[in-house]
Write a structure and sequence with these properties.
Number of strands of chain C: 6
Structural class of chain A: alpha+beta
Helix content of chain C: 25-40%
CATH architecture of the largest domain in chain A: 2-Layer Sandwich
Oligomer: heterotrimer
Largest interface: B-C, 66 and 50 residues
Strand content of chain C: 25-35%
CATH architecture of chain C: 2-Layer Sandwich
Strand order of the largest sheet of chain A: 2-3-1-5-4
Radius of gyration of chain A: 18 Å
CATH class of chain C: Alpha Beta
Number of helices of chain C: 3
Shape of chain A: globular
Number of helices of chain A: 4
Largest sheet of chain A: 5 strands, antiparallel
Strand order of the largest sheet of chain C: 3-4-2-6-5
Chain lengths: ~160, ~350, ~120
């Protein structure tokens, strides 16, 4: 058997109003991407995009998405991403734009890249903190999220 | 992004430059080997009337016959072989058959009968042939080549009987055939009397000429075949010639919405130019004669520094140059363009389509 | 005078342009259209099949005969398939059915002027 090869696009979504970030969900994003591909590449692009294209993962808190598309047509989808200006959800238009961070062959490489990317961002942001208080705040935030994850794990284990 | 959509069929363009009297110049062979010519078009910049000698040469292209519904076995009869195949050179090509869908037949001046037939006909015919070079797997087309000048093909010989049997009993093939014959000396061709019991008509090649005024011409420098700064390269020159033949306007379209085509730089505008074309079944011998006349008339100082002669081959002939197989695919083009300069240097550009061997 | 030389150059697979001879068949044969309308029609076809990226692809309308609705198009080789497929799928001109017939395709414009399939001998 030959593996079906696909490409995973790791994208970050930027929303003008951060409170609306939580409204995002995969179906709305799929529709927005498909619309963008259709307008940029026409019926041919839409057909290429209809097979094997899906939104694998959406993190509504951080605005990170994974898009999966067949290897042969990822350039079509990739080139259409900058033309997305809004996502429609329940009749409301959320204006936003997508930026592609990484293109990988598996979800695993994308995840590795994402961790490295986030560390980098953290290193870049920490020196910007002016007072000790701010630094503490960041440290606490990181700690709280990691302990939250740990706690979550424990909860899960208890349930099992 | 559209990798799989950007492929086009392969093409070959062969350009040669030399002097007419150069020892390696093979102009004669190129003309002779291109057997079936459909159209000759001549562009002479710098005059508003063709020189009388040139005009006469264009008008004296010999006429050809169209024989309706000719059984191919007729070509193997003793009289026909004696009168047409063993003597002089006879050119025969099936008329209005398409090489990509119908059976096509050609009689070459070297005595070869080429049948390009589909698979079903080939299998019922029972003659030895080769699968077409361009439709190999699965072979949908076969090429049968019979050398009529071979010893076994003399009337009554073994090979002759076999082919006659195939063409009369197994599958009686027939077609509308264009025929023309060149005989050395002053002998007049006897084709008409030979085939008098068939419906035939004689046709003269159609001549048409056009005078164009204030035509922008690209500048050509003989020694720059690869296209340098001061000269136009062969590809753009061919494009320009095509544009002249197709009647593209060279006027400056200010908005450029319809077309952005313009004459290649550097250019000179000539006051008048004559474009003359002849269509029909034209023999290489006649074209050779035309070349001789051209050679004399290019020396006339009144004309522009060069003149161009284009000879188009039949798209549906089973051969292009020599006996190389020819196919159609998307265009089936096979033509050559000769540019003759005043110092008797020449360029020849031979172009073939995707289903064709490289020109000689 | 420089000595005569013999030079031979073989150019393979490098046509910059491809040329197409197409004719438009309309449901109502008496409809007239101009060259600008034809070009717009073809661009619309490109846009519907290949989107805005396709519609931005340049091609030239070299000649157009208004009485036979026959045109010669010039297109970059890499856009030939896209142009060809989009005019094949084009079905409407101003709410009337239409179809494009592709008569000849060649990498040489000269070849379009000498089509031996047009050789008509009336007997």
């Amino acid at each position: 058997m030959v593996r079906v090869k696909s490409r995973y696009l790791l994208c970050e979504i930027h929303v003008s109003d951060p409170s609306k970030l939580l409204l995002l969900e995969d179906r709305a994003i799929t529709a927005a991407v498909k619309d963008a591909v259709t307008s940029a590449h026409g019926d041919y692009g839409a057909a290429q995009c209809s097979i094997g294209f899906s939104v694998k993962y959406v993190n509504a808190h951080t605005g990170i998405l994974f898009l999966r598309c067949p290897k042969s047509s990822y350039r079509l989808i990739w080139s259409a991403l900058p033309f997305i200006t809004s996502v429609e959800r329940k009749g409301r238009r959320i204006s936003c734009f997508l930026s592609c961070l990484h293109v990988g062959g598996t979800i695993r490489t994308c995840q590795k890249f994402l961790i490295r990317y986030n560390t980098q961002q953290l290193h870049r942001m920490l020196p910007k903190c002016k007072t000790q208080e701010e630094k503490d705040q960041v440290r606490r935030a990181i700690l709280s999220s990691s302990t939250y994850m740990l706690k979550g794990k424990e909860h899960k284990e208890e349930r099992d | 992004m559209f990798k799989q959509l950007e492929k086009t069929p392969r093409t070959v363009l062969v350009c040669e430059r030399s002097h007419l009297d150069h020892e390696k110049a093979r102009l004669g062979t190129h003309v002779e080997q291109h057997f079936f010519n459909h159209k000759v078009s001549l562009l002479v910049p710098g005059c508003d009337r063709l020189p009388a000698e040139l005009d006469a040469a264009l008008n004296s292209m010999r006429s050809f016959l169209l024989v309706r519904n000719l059984p191919l076995s007729q070509l193997l009869e003793k009289e026909f072989l004696d009168q047409a195949v063993y003597k002089g050179s006879t050119y025969g090509l099936s008329y209005q058959t398409r090489i990509d869908e119908d059976n096509c037949y050609a009689l070459l001046p070297n005595g070869k009968l080429v049948l390009s037939v589909d698979k079903d006909t080939y299998e019922t015919l029972g003659l030895e042939g080769k699968p077409s070079q361009y439709q190999r797997r699965p072979a949908g087309r076969y090429v049968v080549s019979v050398d009529l000048k071979d010893r076994t093909m003399s009337p009554g010989g073994k090979g002759h009987q076999r082919v006659v049997k195939a063409l009369t009993e197994h599958t009686p093939l027939s077609c509308d055939l264009l025929l023309s014959q060149h005989l050395p000396g002053d002998e007049s061709p006897a084709l008409q009397s030979l085939l008098s019991n068939h419906k035939l008509s004689e046709h003269r090649p159609r001549v048409s000429s056009h005078v164009m005024t204030s035509l922008p011409c690209p500048t050509l420098v003989t020694s720059h075949l690869q296209g340098e700064q001061q000269s136009c390269d062969p590809q753009s020159f061919l494009e320009w010639l095509g544009a002249v033949d197709a009647g593209v306007t060279f006027e400056d379209q200010s908005d450029g919405y319809l077309s952005t085509y313009e004459c290649p730089q550097p250019q000179t505008v000539v006051d008048a130019a004559v474009r003359c074309s002849v269509t029909g079944l034209l023999l290489p011998e006649d074209i050779y004669h035309l070349l001789d006349v051209l050679r004399r008339s290019v020396l006339e100082p009144k004309l522009a520094p060069w003149l161009a002669l284009t000879v188009h081959g039949f798209q549906d002939s089973p051969v292009s140059w020599g006996t190389a197989e020819h196919g159609f695919l998307s265009g089936g083009e096979n033509f050559y363009t000769l540019v003759l300069f005043q110092n008797l240097d020449y360029w020849i550009c031979m172009a073939t389509g995707p289903h064709d061997a490289c020109p000689p | 005078m420089q000595p005569a030389v013999f030079e031979r150059v073989v150019v393979k697979n490098s046509p910059v342009y491809q040329y197409m001879k197409v004719s438009l068949v309309l449901e109502q044969a008496q409809t007239k259209l101009t060259a600008v309308e034809l070009k717009h029609l073809i661009t619309t076809g490109l846009k519907s099949l290949y989107g805005e990226v396709g519609a931005a692809f340049p091609f030239d309308l070299l000649t157009f005969e208004e009485d036979t609705l026959t045109a010669v198009l010039r297109v970059y080789s890499r856009g030939l398939v896209r142009l060809w497929s989009s005019i094949t799928l084009l079905g409407f001109f101003q709410q009337q059915r239409c179809a494009f017939r592709v008569l000849q395709v060649s990498p040489y414009l000269l070849a379009l002027t000498g089509n031996s399939r047009d050789l008509a001998l009336d007997s």
